[in-house]
Every structure is written in C-alpha cells, then in structure tokens.
Amino acid sequence: MPAGSTGNIATEDLVSMFHEMGVETGLDLDAVIAAAREAQAILGRKLTSHSIIAGPVIWTSPAAS
C-alpha cells in the first residue's frame, strides 16, 4: 500500500461503485455525497473521497446508429 493509506474506502465511494454496478443499496447517493461534503466542511480539511470531487457518475448509452 502507498504510504499514508489506511486500507479503508469512503462510504460515498462504495455507494457510488454499487450504484454504477446496478446494485440496489437503498441509499440516496446524492444525499450520501452531500453528507460527506458537509463532513469535509465541518472538519475543515480535505477528505480522500473521489465522489466528493467528481460527484455521482451518470452513465449514458451510446447514441443509436
């Protein structure tokens, strides 16, 4: 593992991954990301979550030919 790695994954990143895979979690991904962003603001430091920066991934189907 790279130096400083904890081996943990941010909840919002895990929920986002499941969302992208089509796995039903029962969680509102936008609300989970919003909560993570709020936690980041309250802590006053950057968190390591990719979803905080990128937001949810929106997959679209390729245009029909």
Architecture overview:
- The protein contains three helices and no strands.
- The longest helix is centred in the middle third of the chain and has 15 residues, at 29-43.
- It is an all-alpha fold.
Mean pLDDT: 85
Q: Which oligomerization state do the chains in this entry correspond to?
A: single chain
Shape: globular
Counting helices, strands and paired strands, the structural category is mainly alpha
Report the β-strand fraction as a percent range: under 5%
Helix content: 40-55%
Alpha carbon gyration radius: 14 Å
Largest sheet: none
Unreliable residue stretches: none
Distance from first to last alpha carbon: 44 Å
The total count of helices amounts to: 3
Number of strands: 0
Give, in order, the helices and strands.
HHH
